[in-house]
Amino acid sequence: MSIRRLVLSLAVAAGFSAPGACTALAEVVVGVAVPRSGAYVAIGEQVLRGIEAAARDANNAGGLNGETIVLDVQDDACDSNKATAVANHFVQSKVGLVVGHVCSNASIAASEVYAASGVVMITAASVAARLTDRGLPTIFRVCGRDDDQARLSATVLAERFRDRKIALIQDLTPASRALAAATKDNLNRIGINEAMSVAFSPSDADDAALADRLKGAGIDVVYYGGDAAEMGRLVRISAERGFRPQWFGTSAIATQEFARIAGPASNGVLMTFYLDPSRQPAAAAVVQAFKADGVDPTGSTIYGYAALQALVAAGNFARASDPRTIAATLHRERFDLVLGPVGFDAKGDVTAQGYVIYVWKDGAFTPAGK
Predict the structure, then answer these.
(1) What CATH number has the domain spanning 147-276+356-367?
(2) Any idea where the Leucine-binding protein domain is (predicted)?
């Protein structure tokens, strides 16, 4: 078991002794499940940085209900079976609070274990509607939903590219397939039919063949819900082969890895992503602290921070650290987080502003505007 002990100096005013004193500090272990291997490592690292910073800040302010937060960090590799094993590890270790998982398939698999055992799980990055549509009372998220993301994608495609030839592509992964299907459904309901709908298996050869196929069909706009590495590679290879459509990605490419792999071809790529809290007043102090440590808190970093912050806020409000009370409090109350004032609905979805459109330029993404 890999436990990161963030036992920091607590204020004397909070009633705790300084480290090294004879009095032992009570501890509450919070499980953390992120991909530390596999295709989504970059997003996992963003989320983990946010969680660790939130634990540090919470401990400096007195912890969770007066208990020092200790993180048990586990790698699920964004794999459903590994996620289930991680969930069982937390249950067997009597961990009642979990921040995770990152990928929706992992969160959905693990959430069945958590719900059956009364463990609270809150995710910073899993967007599948099915995660919360099941109404499991201890499952929450601080990020948006993929059906909302698909609706926005379809709306933007219809408003900006109505008279252009649009291709919807997916790479057979659950997230990519679901986003392509939902975007197609929403686009068709608006009255626009895509010119092509393509499934492919990612590889250098297949990416090149796909680029040539799209180019030959005269495609102007390509929508793809793939991960940062694969979309970065596809965008770069396409540009090298003289195919430069308007690319349209999703929250899965909200990491510097995409721009690093795509290179200059990343300029102009559109992307749906949650409202960037690093630009909001509520997150100003946290963002400043990250930057002082040399960390760029973009992507899912602040959402990782918000996920743990929500658990702490609920526990401190209710003066409890047991999962049943924290879950009930999250559903019932509103909290001032780095996302602003938010609550959670009956499904466990956060009541915060949803997705917006961003554009990549010179290795960074900024709001695309109207």
Answers:
(1) 3.40.50.2300
(2) 28-363
